[in-house]
Amino acid sequence: MEITTLCTIVASLRLVPNRSQFFTFESVTLSCVDSGHFSEWRVKRNTSKHNNRECMNWGTRNESRCFINDIHTLDTGVYWCESGAGECSDAVNITVTGGSVILKSPVHPVQEGESVTLHCITKTTSSSNLTAEFYKDGVLVGSSPTGNMTIHSVLKSDEGLYKCHISGAGQSGDSWLSVRAGRPESSHLPLAPILLPVVVVCLLLASVILLWLWRNRKGKNDSEVLYTDVNITQEVQPQEDRETDLSSTFYSTIKPGAT
Question: To which CATH superfamily is domain 1-98 assigned?
Fold first, then answer.
């Protein structure tokens, strides 16, 4: 049985007692809990006999709650909350048994990494004094002298149909354990502590690169203009050499007609 109404899920259906399997003649309270939408909720259900029936037809309504006294096997079905605005809750499968053993398991999906405890409960005897065997998809997965089995750090592969058996008391019905895939660990970390060092490093690198480019550019500009000191030295001939030159010069007068 499934929900036949198309709607937007914005609420959750809570059960008291918090389990999806019940013994006949137990009392059950179903409550619609939203996330601030303040809609007027109605609890509805699909069973083997009727579909899309409101609480007033099979229980006692009190605002967004529905009470079932003396629940019966015919109350087995799919339950959910629905508003007039086209909103709804997630659906919960409720199983009512006339037997002596039920399995208490999470009503709603559990997150990967969480611990999940399954309880095998009898109608007349405390399960803590009885050894229970637990099955997943028909295969024995564990046995406990206390009637409880804990799955530590549940994985998506742990999802499936579970039931339990107590020797001399009987076997429970099947309950579906739903597991939501966990988010990556990094998504749980605040972004600011991660991004801040990255931004600082990027700014430092950018500053260093800009400084290097500026200095490199400045060096090129300076190299285009060259300055040099030129010393012009006038060679002064020594006095002694000048006198020597003068003394070696002879002058002679030549008279015309002389023989």
Answer: Immunoglobulins (2.60.40.10)
